[in-house]
Specification:
Elements: E1 38-43, H1 52-59, E2 71-76, H2 80-88, E3 94-98, H3 99-105, E4 114-123, E5 129-133, H4 142-148, E6 153-156, H5 161-173, E7 179-182, H6 185-194, E8 199-202, H7 206-212, E9 216-221, H8 222-225, E10 229-236, H9 237-242, H10 244-262, H11 267-276, H12 283-291, E11 303-307, H13 313-328, H14 345-353, E12 361-364
Parallel strand pairs: 1-2, 1-3, 6-7, 6-8
Antiparallel strand pairs: 3-10, 4-10, 5-8, 5-9, 11-12
């Protein structure tokens, strides 16, 4: 795949936001339909809801559908903004990320045109999880625990899905934290260890690691306040325009990956792939992040992720709500995504062809007896 020279050489960003730079040069040349293509895919093995990317890398389902001779390179992004920036710069063509960076990616049309083409899942606790210090009081239920946050020191990576969830919860419960800090995963972890935080909101699998390491306790999730979270799949518009065969091929494979994750008999293999593609996480922690069950009193439930695959009304509602939040904190300059930013026809057509309806599957919590020992 031949790449053109860019007029800008770097794009800087925070977690859900991107810094605007001058417009880039011409589109990437992906070759003619039917010919081999080289794809660079940004994905997040450190965000459990985006693990269909982990499965795609491990199982290589795309080889069944892409033109023979095609090449796929997977690049790990520690956070969604890194993937967004690489897609805007033409360094990556396909991106797996959370709802917030996914929405941001579609709003930088002065840099590059990125579209949302599939939904990785919707859940209550993949991003929306309130953690408190280990010596916090023992609460009767999640509602009591949430009220305890009033007047406390709370940290989140601002601009992310955790920020949206925290602020929505504060508003619903009329909570005013003593301090509301902008901290990344590493700082939140070290501050819990040092006893400098009362609470934080975190995403999986870091939530499960903090709980498993005894550094924090889960006290509430999005289920506690009916605030969900989501993961999205994005593609550059020049890829979509030039190579409809590649778009359909990738999304056929993505459907296979989501169905694979949701089948409980595949849980051990999914966790092994996640373990191979991450560092610092045990198999038990990784298993808990997707297949474990949190207590009901802390907002737990039987379902860990719902594979919507296409843009169902629930997925569109989340995107609209998240876009409005990003606009309210001045991360994007519009309060809703442009109509063409959501390109749903590919997934809708594939579901019809394969006789499936969305949501296509659910990832159910499994018995603790099936968890890895370490």
């Amino acid at each position: 795949m031949r790449r053109r020279r860019f007029t800008a050489t770097a794009i800087a960003a925070l977690f859900g936001t991107c810094m605007v730079v001058p417009a880039l040069a011409a589109d990437i040349d992906y070759g003619k339909p039917g010919t081999p293509v080289k794809l660079v895919v940004g994905y997040q093995p450190y965000y459990t809801q985006a693990w269909s990317g982990v499965v795609m890398r491990g199982k290589k389902f795309y080889e069944k559908y892409l033109p023979k001779g095609s090449e796929v390179e997977f690049q790990i992004g520690l956070q969604g903004a890194i993937i967004v920036n690489n897609m805007l710069a033409g360094k990556q063509n396909i991106g797996y990320y959370g709802d917030m960076p996914g929405i941001v990616s579609t709003t930088k049309t002065e840099v590059a045109d990125v579209r949302l083409v599939a939904v990785l899942g919707l859940a209550w606790d993949q991003c929306n999880a309130f953690l408190v210090r280990n010596d916090a009081p023992q609460f009767k239920n999640d509602q009591e625990a949430i009220r305890w946050l009033d007047g406390k020191t709370v940290a989140v990576p601002k601009g992310s899905c955790t920020d949206r969830f925290a602020q929505a919860t504060f508003k619903k419960f009329s909570i005013q934290p003593k301090e509301y800090l902008n901290q990344n995963i590493e700082v939140i972890t070290s501050n819990f260890r040092a006893g400098k935080l009362d609470a934080a909101v975190m995403w999986e699998p870091t939530t499960s690691r903090l709980v498993g390491d005894g550094l924090a306790r889960l006290i509430a999730t999005g289920k506690s306040v009916q605030e969900n979270d989501g993961g999205l799949l994005g593609m550059r518009a020049d890829l979509i325009k030039q190579r409809p065969d590649v778009v359909k091929a990738w999304l056929q494979a993505e459907l296979d990956a989501q169905l694979f994750i949701a089948d409980p008999k595949n849980a051990p293999e999914v966790i092994k792939m996640a373990k191979e593609q991450t560092t610092g996480f045990s198999e038990k922690v990784l298993w808990n992040s997707l297949y474990g069950r949190y207590p009901d009193v802390a907002g737990g439930g039987d379902t860990r992720n719902i594979m919507h695959y296409t843009f169902t009304p629930e997925a569109r509602e989340l995107i609209s709500r998240a876009a409005a939040f990003l606009h309210s904190i001045k991360s994007i300059n519009v309060d809703k995504v442009r109509p063409e930013a959501i390109d749903s026809k590919w997934t809708e057509d594939i579901l019809r062809e394969r006789g499936l309806k969305a949501p296509i599957a659910e990832v159910k919590a499994l018995p603790a007896s099936q968890a890895p020992r370490n």
